[in-house]
């Protein structure tokens, strides 16, 4: 379903540019692993910070029926593709999808996500400074339950006191078809 709504949205040229610029994304198998690890449900307010083409955001909305699914993406081209894919979703079969999903072209280090309950960070290439900024912002999210990040979050950051429990989760991503990528799940122990 998620891949289908991208028919005609991300054509050959986009794929080639993405390959050349090193764009990578979570695979559908990885999406299921992500959703299971984060325990996304109908109460979840899910953020994908660095949402690329928006596939994971649409997956969270369509497959996990989250309350809200938000993607922040800095690249205009990818953001436009995400918005186009959302427009391809049949709102008769998925009523409310346009209210559930929000794509924003933005630098997520400058944004507000105080309503987030669950966050995914495809942080492979994010700098230390970016991760610190995100963590500092997430500290101010009162309902935050879990974060899944490909790069480990900075040691000593106050967010780790809020989400003190950790485990490794395998997620399949397009940049390594041979092996799963290891991500770290951080969660508040009372949600175990
Ligand atoms: C590895 S891709 C992951 C896409 C998607 N989340 C997934 O897992 O399939 C990371 C994306 O983060 C975006 N990005 C990097 N830094 C960002 C920032 N500060 N604000 C918003 N997006 C950013 C990149 O442009 C890229 O599209």
From TrEMBL:
Superkingdom as given in the UniProt entry: Eukaryota
A Pfam entry, by short name: DOT1
Gene3D superfamilies according to UniProt: Vaccinia Virus protein VP39
Occurrences of domain DOT1 (ranges): 22-111
Family matches, as InterPro entries: DOT1_dom, SAM-dependent_MTases_sf
Sequence intervals crossing the membrane: none
This protein's name: DOT1 domain-containing protein
């Amino acid at each position: 379903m998620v891949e289908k709504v991208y028919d005609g949205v991300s054509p050959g040229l986009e794929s080639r540019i993405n390959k050349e610029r090193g764009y990578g994304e979570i695979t559908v198998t990885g999406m299921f692993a992500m959703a299971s690890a984060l325990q996304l449900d109908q109460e979840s307010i899910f953020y994908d910070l660095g949402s690329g083409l928006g596939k994971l955001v649409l997956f969270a909305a369509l497959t996990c029926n989250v309350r809200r699914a938000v993607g922040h993406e800095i690249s205009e081209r990818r953001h436009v593709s995400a918005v186009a894919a959302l427009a391809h979703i049949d709102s008769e079969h998925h009523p409310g999808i346009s209210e559930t999903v929000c794509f924003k072209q933005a630098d997520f280090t400058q944004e507000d996500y105080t309503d987030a309950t669950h966050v995914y960070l495809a942080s492979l290439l994010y700098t230390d400074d970016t991760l610190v900024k995100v963590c500092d912002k997430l500290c101010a999210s009162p309902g935050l339950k879990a974060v899944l990040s490909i790069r480990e979050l900075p040691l000593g950051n106050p967010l780790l006191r809020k989400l003190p429990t950790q485990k490794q989760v395998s997620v399949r991503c397009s940049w390594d078809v041979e092996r799963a990528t290891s991500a770290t799940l951080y969660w508040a122990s009372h949600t175990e």
